[in-house]
Design goal:
globular; 20% helix; alpha+beta; single chain
Length: 129
């Protein structure tokens, strides 16, 4: 998988044939100041992430999904794509939106993390200010 034009701050963490993981500023969210689970992450997967145990291989007809996670239990709505190429472009677009301040990450949390939000605010461009 290729992620041409990936927004500043985002890195390709790993790539496999049916999955890719992109991370935002792993130099900042490195487990020293913030728990490792707070690393903003975009998953690109063939089939839904979190499939039942024992089903390691997605079906050939499964769609691709792009999902932003702020923590394992805190995520944005998954976005569905018919092809790997479309999912890659969707992941780049989502990363650009996040880096540009166009993703309201506060809305994704039931229990706010003020210090974490302050750090994210410093790192993303907030178009609303």
């Amino acid at each position: 998988m290729e992620f041409d034009g990936l927004a500043d701050g985002w890195e390709v963490w790993s790539v496999e044939s049916t999955k890719a993981v992109l991370t935002f500023r792993p130099d900042i969210f490195d487990s020293h100041e913030f728990p490792p689970a707070c690393l903003p992450t975009i998953y690109v997967t063939k089939g839904r992430r979190g499939r039942r145990p024992g089903r390691d291989v997605p079906n050939p007809g499964d769609p691709w999904y792009v999902t932003l996670y702020l923590e394992p239990d805190v995520s944005d709505d998954e976005r569905r794509y018919d092809s790997r190429e479309d999912a890659e472009r969707g992941a780049v677009e989502l990363a650009t939106q996040f880096a540009g301040g166009d993703v309201d990450y506060r809305e994704l949390y039931q229990v706010p993390r003020p210090r974490y939000f302050e750090k994210l605010d410093e790192l993303v461009v907030d178009e609303q200010t």
